[in-house]
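Lab meeting notes turned into a lecture example. A postdoc, R.K., suggested we walk through two folding results consecutively so the class can see how the record format repeats. The first protein's sequence and structure tokens come next.
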Amino acid sequence: MRRFFNLLKKNMNAFGLVFLMAISFCFAMFQGGFVSWFIFYSFLPFAAYAAILLFYPLHAITVERKASKRECQAGESVEIVLTFTRKNRLPLLFMVIEEEMPDELEDRGIHRRLLTFPGFKRTISMSYVLESLPRGDHSFQSIRFWIGDFFGMIEKEAIFDSPLNITVFPPYHELDSLYLDRLFNQGQAGSTKKIQREHSVVSGVREYQPGDQLSWINWKATARTSEIMTKEFEVQKNQDVWIIHDDQPSILFEETIEVVASFVHSMLKKGMRVGYASTGSSLILPAGGGRHQRRKIFTRLAKEGPGATNELAEKGRKGDLPANAAVIFIVSEITREKVDILNAFRTNQGLTMLSMKNPAILSDEGKQAMTAAITKGIKVSFIEHEQLLFDRTEAMAK
């Protein structure tokens, strides 16, 4: 009996359609006359169309989803194009399409439901724009759509899988060169090639070349040869810079991601070799340079999320980072636990902690942690958005 009721409930619309057809036919038979038969024959095409929809092969429709770009910066817009292809030209009154958005987009209130009237078309295309996308690796999976008849008695629904990934890189600012040089000269990070060269051992002299600094001129050799001669330096091994991101949950988490992206972009642009790690993952990206390294780190930053674990501290104790590497730890605020994490890399040179929190509003615990860091030989600095001199849109335009 339960099985019968389940079958009846599932096909209630179909039974209702048959019931209405039977009622109108009986009314025409018993009542007779033009009006009763006119009602029956007027309702017959709509009932026949609804009956055809009951057997319409929705799963024979192919669905394709395309994006105008698979990678973009946070805040940019992406156009999504949906294409439905069917094998017959049966007229469809309407089609409602609903995108099943990734959770991170749904949490921001982003929903997309589209209505179209296919008619006799075999190929149906429509598009929509996702504006101001947030940072993240957004994975689109299913597309849900349904069709129906004139009176809404029959509705058929189908869900198709059409995977699509859109990687949204974090925003970044163009750091001012003077700010980076001042940071390096204070010993808070690895030196650039120019600064390294000034502290290298002089191995000889050569003729002046455009771009050489005045401090490199060898005046004695210049007077002797009557030509401007500059010092030739021994090539020192380039010092890598490793940036570590604090993955602890914080209201400033997105701001720390933005600062990391700004440092990575600006350092790589100056020709430095940059590596990346985060406290929430034991995976370390080796130091490298160029656009390929920038893309690797930005892809990693796009996927970063708050986490309570500190898997990186053990890596520091094992010495997985090169001993000559400078380490910059970017945190939302200074705590004793984070000082201990950075201190695990004590075999490295130039340990630096950059905090997003204003030093004027540090708690007593924060001040004690800062004192402990300085005692351990860790340099502490604070960074605010005012130090990121150029607007983000201007940096992306370059």
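The second example is placed directly after the first for contrast:
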Amino acid sequence: MTRGRVWARRLLLVLGFVAVGLAVLSLAKPADQVVTELQLPLRHEDIIRQQAADKGVDAALIAAVIYTESRFRYQTSGAGAMGLMQIMPDTADYIARKSGGTQFTQTDLATPQINIAYGTWYLRYLLDKYNGNTILTLAAYNGGEGKVDEWRAAAAARGEKFRVASHVPFKETRDYVERVLSARKDYRAHHAKELGLN
């Protein structure tokens, strides 16, 4: 074999290794991106973006509620809340009636599209009820709107402005509001592009 052919084969071999290396590098995610996905997962971003646009709800807020409720895993709570956004069956039935979901059955809450659509509808409903107040909306999403209305009325009867820290007696609800607000900030910082926030 001539020296020219040997060099040509070596060159092809080196180019092959370079091509494989570049392909592997293009598929691999940077370490910080992998850590972010583990700490702050995001799934179904196409559905979240679509529902955010349809219902005029912040996509980062939707993602933060899903993260806080279920960490983006389908589950049913001990209280019976279902799916990614942990919707109670009675609430889902109410949403179906109000939103025209005539074919809805509670097992549909296992479907990410329906669960996120219903959860986002409910967020929009609560935002409208509480004049865009995200804190009241989140307190109601977790503790129930009837409870929030009671707490607000009690604060107003004492001439006080409603504050979650001092007027919500349930630690779980106070912590929930804080966790969702913190997660929303993180989703805006780390997943803005995926959520269509850019």
